[in-house]
Amino acid sequence: MIESDEGMTLFDNKKKWLNEQHTDRVGTQLYMSPEQISGKSYNYKVDIYSLGVIFFELLNPFTTEMERYQTLTQLRNYIFPPQFLKTFKNEYDLLCLMLSPDPKLRPTTFGIRARLPLSTPDSNLDPILTYSTYEFELHNRKSSAIKVLKN
């Protein structure tokens, strides 16, 4: 961290930071990229992998912690829930890139943004996927939702 007259900044050389290799194993294992788990050096593309896992979780709600753990573990091998591919074809294609075991094949954030907008919620989907509620817990979904007022 560098301190200047304008305040504090995390890095003095953005280009150096983008190409910097890291080797520390930090993070939650379900969200860690293959190169992090194997202890190899890594760069910012590990965040693309983690973002892919989070993106998947946003599209595929879980009812139990065990279901979440099993599904996210299978995701490492490109094993998606059967309905996911049918419901989220465009997202599936993007997630396969984001979750690639080879960091060079993962898109940048600009590449991800270029693929948007993706699917809009289908009226046949679970009402929780209509984006009109906020979720705070995995269990007892009905009582943990707060309705969002739309203008």
TrEMBL record:
> Does this UniProt record's set of keywords contain Nucleotide-binding?
yes
Q: Which UniProt keywords apply?
A: ATP-binding, Initiation factor, Kinase, Nucleotide-binding, Protein biosynthesis, Transferase
The root-end lineage is:
Eukaryota, Metazoa, Ecdysozoa, Arthropoda, Hexapoda
Q: Which GO terms fall under molecular function for this chain's record?
A: ATP binding; eukaryotic translation initiation factor 2alpha kinase activity; translation initiation factor activity
GO-annotated cellular components: cytoplasm; nucleus
Q: What is this protein called?
A: Eukaryotic translation initiation factor 2-alpha kinase 3
Instruction: Using the record's annotation, list all stretches that form the Protein kinase domain.
Output: 1-129
* Pfam families xref list: Pkinase
| Species of the source | Schizaphis graminum (Green bug aphid)
